[in-house]
Amino acid sequence: MAGSLADDDGPAVLAVDTRDAAWFDAFFADHATAVHRYFVRRAARDDAEDLAAEVFATAWRRRDRIPAGFELPWLYRTASYVLANHRRRPTLTLISEYGNEQERHTTRTANPAELVMADQEVRAAMARLSSRDRSVLMLHAWEGMDGEGLAKALGLTRGGAAAALSRARARLRQAWSEDH
Predict the structure, then answer these.
(1) Core-most of 9, 10, 37, 133, by most CB within 10 Å?
(2) Hey, is 30 helix, strand or coil?
(3) Which ranges constitute the DSSP H helices of 71-146?
(4) Is this prediction's pTM over 0.85?
(5) 78 inside domain
(6) In 10 A of CB 36, how many CB atoms?
(7) Spatial contact of 31 and 72, defined as CB atoms under 8 Å apart
(8) Does 91 score more than 90 pLDDT?
(9) What's the confidence (pLDDT) of residue 2?
(10) How far apart are CA 29 and CA 99, in angstroms?
(11) Which domain holds residue 66?
(12) Cα distance between residue 1 and residue 63, in whole Å
């Protein structure tokens, strides 16, 4: 988006928005794998590409609002909204047309974030946490977010994000110790 900037001391100067198609191509190349992995860990593998594409379509439309230096946290936050909307959609049940068999197949499977954790004790402890605590811990452990990045992804201040992470860790330790 180009516009003119005028100041009181001189003629208008043409300002060029650097967030053009070339910027977006580089942005996509830098972050596509991370966003795709985010969805692979949290949704059915078949849905991951479509969900990631939806995040990047939103990023293109809102590219002027993506905070410089915090692009990936912004993408993770957007991904969390896309995933929440995806999970709210009704699940379709497909019925086989093979005679009286009436085989039923659902289009969604269990949450891969829960399936990835092979250790039953860890799954049990994580299950006792709120979805918010699980989200904070997964953003930190799986996506490597901390500090200002975690704050941006959660939509909190840096202090708020640190407190949320600290509380989530304490609750996980408590859940773990109750089982042992």
Answers:
(1) 133
(2) helix
(3) 71-88, 112-116, 120-127, 131-141
(4) no
(5) yes
(6) 17
(7) yes
(8) no
(9) 44
(10) 48
(11) 21-111
(12) 11
